[in-house]
Amino acid sequence: MTDSTCHAGLAVCQRLAIFVCILTPGALTAPARAETKPNVVFILADDLGWSDTTLFGTTSFYKTPNIERLAARGMTFTRAYSDSPLCSPTRASILTGLSPARHGITTPNCHLPLVRLSAAATESGPANQKATIPNPVTRLKTDYYTLAEMFRDHGYATGHFGKWHLGAEPYSPLEHGFDVDVPHHPGPGPAGSYVAPWAFKDFDHDPDIPDQHLEDRMAKEAVAFLDQHRDEPFFLNYWMFSVHAPFDAKKSLIDKYRPLVDANDSQRSPTYAAMIESMDDAVGVLLDTLDRLGIADNTIIVFASDNGGNMYNEVDGTSATSNAPLRGGKATMYEGGVRGPAIVVDPGRVQPGSRSDEVIQSSDFYPTLLELLDIEAQPNQAFDGISIVPALEGGALERDAIFTYFPHSPHIPEWLPPAVSVHAGDWKLIRVFHGGDDGTHDFKLFHLKDDIGEQQNLASEFPDRVAQLDQLIDAFLSDTGAVLPAVNPKFNPAKYQRDLIGKAALKGSGGNKKQRPRNAKPVAGWLPGGTCQLSLKAHALVVSSDGRDPYLSFTLPDSVADKDLVLQFTMKSTASGDGQVFWAEAGVTPPFAAVRSKPFSVQHDGNDHQYRVQWSAQSPVVGVRIDPAKGEGQIVLSNLRITTADGNDVYRWEF
Question: In 3-state terms, what secondary structure has residue 471?
């Protein structure tokens, strides 16, 4: 394999995007390219999973007719990948054509105060981790020649609308080649909510639309940009806030989907279904505008998602969505984290309603647009992605592999320790850095054509295949100069629990929560948190919740050395949703985390029920937290005590 072939193969599977040149609906042949420069619209959805649209026959609950309209005008890719299972790394890859392993943004931390422009290795990690986690880049450096700068230098009007998440000034869209940036917000998602009022610094809802949806307003702003630049070439970068947290939507749409919920369907959140519809409506608004302006046949559109669907936040008592039949979701290295829908339309090249099984990735979009527009790259400018024009013309791509570099391990369902993966043909190999014995790597090998759900690890059956694919990973990491995880010198085998890898409870919804007042005071030693207030009544602790996130915590007067403990209590509730018990261990921060928690089912019928939640601690227990529900209502707790596994009292509360 030559150096150039190796470098071209770096791009791979990431982004769910698709270049879409819009054809007149129903056109049988593509019109000739106008003499004027083609316009480009890049639509990037946030957290839109492979099964979140109706493109692949994987959902009957969500409705995406406008994305179907888009697909009818161009080519749908069945194997489109993002460059990362999280958003900021993929966004940087789209704008630079480079892998996260090379540009160094490997996690979505670009809204945090720390500015770090070069990735750096770490010397050690927690004792229960085999590998260290590098410190990633936190801003997209302005010395990159971005996609927007390329368009601006070739006479295009450039506008960014929606989410950015690559840094505030001096790293905002305005410093990366965009003439316009709306709403000029550096955060990871909508400010406060989707339904007005919002909490953006300088961007308010239309005063005559009190419950305006953010995506409706963003589409309106994008339409104004299209109207303004209809007679000149433009690059519209419409990066949606949808369907990222916080999870809220138009009440009318939630009510529309609520009676359609099938309890046996893994996709059963009416709130998320409503969010999908608003996202799809925005796509329709852009298509309608291009048709109205008569410029659809001279416009290239990119439609994409920055990573897989969210399967770790709880919404409406279930996970936000499901990527089935794919395994995992956002923030995981499995297919559900990086594979998504992609459509490309270009009237001069792409057959309407066509499909391709070729593997494409987010970092491919930059070099592809250059070829579509017949523009040369800058001198010495190189890409980790490749042009996918041969696929758009119905042919095959010449690439050895694509790679996903994710040296992080957020503890969500299906999580893995720091890892890198390679897709080559129908094979996928995940290398878990130093996850084996004595500092060696651990491997997971899947044949995706026969096992799209990644259930059968074939690494032990095909060691030669593992070695071959791992050599490709070595070449990729060397070529990109990636800062790698190292063997953790502080690793303690006694604190390592392999059976906890991939295990985690669902997290809170990320919604617009009403937080407890800063001066909230403990009641009987219990501190109220989230959306609740505490009071005592008739030898019981009363929890009154006015929102989605009630919880209460207690610091034990003395640590408990017993490892196997049980929290027992009587509870009656008029709220909704499952409960969760957390325990805090001495010297471990944060005190309450999902890895130290146990969910439990709750009967919200207003009657007393007995509950027993058991856990095994690794260190002395110093506190407990109860999340008794996920909704508004009143909860009454009594007969509350901690016992050993054999029933002996450790601590009992007297109300």
Answer: helix
Picking from 639, 646, 585, 588, the residue whose alpha carbon sits closest to that of residue 610 is: 639
**Does the structure show a pLDDT above 70 at 13?**
no
Q: Which residues contact 458 (CB under 8 A, 6 or more apart)?
A: 445, 446, 447, 465
Q: Locate tokens 């989230």: which residue?
A: 530
**Between 270-292 and 214-228, two packed helices, what is the crossing angle to 10 degrees?**
10
Of 39-43, 363-367, 556-560, the least confident: 556-560
Of 534, 522, 606, nearest in space to 571 by CA:
606
Q: Which residues pair with 319 in a beta bridge?
A: 314
Task: For residue 156, give both structure tokens.
Answer: 């295009």
Is residue 6 over pLDDT 70?
Answer: no
CA separation for the pair 395, 409 (Å, rounded): 37
Q: 309 with 29: CB under 8 angstroms?
A: no
Bridge partners of 555?
623
Confidence of residue 511 (pLDDT cuts 50, 70, 90): low
| pLDDT at residue 547, as a whole number | 76
Give the helix ranges, DSSP H, for 307-364.
335-338
Task: Give the span between the Cα atoms of 566 and 638, in whole angstroms.
Answer: 15
The angle subtended at Cα 402 by Cα 397 and Cα 406, nearest 5°, is: 160
Give the helix, strand, coil percentages of the chain, each rounded to 5: 20, 25, 50
DSSP labels for 15-26? Answer: ---EEEEPPPTT
- Provide the 8-state DSSP code for 528: E
pLDDT > 70? residue 21? no
Cβ of 505: how many Cβ atoms within 10 Å?
Answer: 18
Q: Which residues touch 242 (CB under 8 Å, ≥6 apart)?
A: 45, 46, 48, 194, 215, 275, 276, 278, 279, 282
Q: What are residue 40's DSSP bridge partners?
A: 235, 300
Contacts of 121 (CB under 8 A, 6+ apart): 132, 134, 135, 483, 484, 486
Tokens of 398: 């010449």
Sign, CA dihedral 436-323-599-271, equals: positive
503 CB burial (10 A radius; 0-12, 13-18, 19+): middle
Strand-strand pairing, 354-361 and 75-81? parallel
CA dist 443 and 447 (Å) reads 13
Cβ within 8 Å of residue 189, ≥6 positions away: 46, 163, 241, 244, 245, 246, 510
Q: How many CA atoms, within 13 angstroms, populate the side-chain half-sphere of residue 114? A: 9
> Of 373, 513, 511, which Cα lies nearest the Cα of 39?
373
Sheet holding 402-406, edge to edge: 402-406, 419-424, 427-432, 442-447
pLDDT band for position 3 (50/70/90)?
A: very low
User: The tokens 């893995």 sit on which residue?
Assistant: 416
pLDDT in tens, 173-212: 999 999 999 999 999 999 989 999 998 988 999 988 989 9
Tokens matching residue 583: 């325990």
399: three-class secondary structure by DSSP = coil
Region of residue 26 (phi > 0: left; psi between -120 and 50: alpha; otherwise: beta): left
